[in-house]
Amino acid sequence: MQPEGSTGARAADRVLILNPESGSQNHVDDVVELGGEHGFDIRKTEESGDAKRLARDAAPTADLIAAVGGDGTVNGVVNGIAAADELETTTLAVVPTGTGNNFATNIGIRGIEHAFTVLEEGRRRSIDVGAANDRRFVNSCVGGITAEASRKTTSESKADLGVLAYVKNTLETVGSFDSLPLRVETAAGPNGRRTQAWTGNAIFVLIGNCRRFTGARTAQANVEDGLLEVTIVEDVPAVNLLGEAAFKRLFGGDSSYIVRRRTPSLAIESTRDAITYSLDGEMLETQTLHLETNPRTLRVAVGDGYEPDPDDGVL
Ligand SMILES: Nc1ncnc2c1ncn2[C@@H]1O[C@H](COP(=O)(O)OP(=O)(O)OP(=O)(O)O)[C@@H](O)[C@H]1O
């Protein structure tokens, strides 16, 4: 049986992986119609894990895979393409139908129709992919967010703060904060940067591939430099975190609670319990995490607004 939206001959070349439950869930008809017009074989996710499985199955024959959903769906699709070992031969397109859509925004995709224009006419760029133990991420990996706070974060807050919305919600919903006793070791990097170790109590550790953590939603990092942007939020007295302005100040340039590093790889060891990490919004619990970038390994269709190096990126 041909899957819904299939156009036969080109079906295996172009596969669209659609999460019908993402965002406000009213995008399905529009996407199925546009996908059909653009020659996509359409496969819908039915439960957690499907985006990865469908992408892994499609990648060996597909030239172009469109991930339709939010950051979690993009994450699943990228993990699936990686599991098939097809990162360098399959192009990823993103059709943003999630609530946050951080990654889509960073690569210059403005909406559903625009995404289809971009996948036909847009530039292709090869961007860095983050690896965290055996999983991949494109945007960010954040330790210290609770799974419950992550689930309860509103779309308005995500639209305002991006992934920092989860951090803010964790601060607001967790009564007494247990800080994370960590050892963070960053590898030697360019410009004479040497291996460095940081040991102490943190409340969050944030690693950005596509994203840096300055408090502004649009703080895109250079995604083609082979480096991860590491932000450690040191144990802060709770009183310093009250209110929106205080929260944004915490991540500001002159914050005394922030340690920043840029590195091609790092290891984070919790000296107590396992920590919950959010990889593009998908959870992972572990005591030891090894992170690295695979420089310029994911081919992505990008919009005109995408800038590989949004600023000189000096931290
Ligand atoms: N058919 C489905 N039913 C229920 N959950 C699903 C289904 N398909 C995928 N999922 C789950 O949806 C989540 C991904 O949602 P996604 O992140 O793409 O959208 P979102 O949360 O609305 O947007 P964003 O992450 O950008 O805020 C994953 O955790 C996945 O397990």
Automatic annotation (TrEMBL):
GO terms for cellular component: plasma membrane. GO terms for biological process: phospholipid biosynthetic process. Keywords: ATP-binding, Kinase, Lipid biosynthesis, Lipid metabolism, Magnesium, Metal-binding, Nucleotide-binding, Phospholipid biosynthesis, Phospholipid metabolism, Transferase. Transmembrane segments: none annotated. Signal peptide: none annotated. InterPro entries: ATP-NAD_kinase_N, Diacylglycerol/lipid_kinase, Diacylglycerol_kinase_cat_dom, Lipid_Phosphate_FormReg, NAD/diacylglycerol_kinase_sf, YegS/DAGK_C. GO terms for molecular function: ATP binding; ATP-dependent diacylglycerol kinase activity; metal ion binding. Residues 9-136 form the DAGKc domain. This is YegS/Rv2252/BmrU family lipid kinase. It comes from Natronorubrum aibiense.
